[in-house]
Specification:
Elements lengths: L1 H21 L9 E5 L8 H12 L6 E5 L4 E5 L1
Antiparallel strand pairs: 1-3, 2-3
Keywords: Signal
């Protein structure tokens, strides 16, 4: 019985290490981190991304999107 539990533990540990090392479960979700430019932001999403890259750098910024009723430029990390 102890050998079976030990084998299962080792198998689970191996699986967890495999998943962690290959980033199989890595999320593609982006997190809002900054705002850029005037409100309302009158440019496009590409203009917003350029504003974010210029002001905060890339990385951490990976995208910029004009959002909301008031047209804010949101930078995502």
């Amino acid at each position: 019985m102890a050998k079976n539990i030990n084998s299962v533990s080792i198998t689970v540990l191996f699986f967890v290490l495999l998943v962690a090392s290959t980033e199989i479960l890595k999320s593609e979700a982006q997190t809002f981190c900054f705002e850029c430019g005037p409100v309302p932001f009158l440019g496009t999403n590409a203009d917003c991304f350029n504003c974010c890259k210029t002001k905060y750098g890339s990385p951490p910024v990976v995208s910029g999107v004009v959002e909301g009723r008031e047209k804010h430029c949101h930078c995502y990390c």
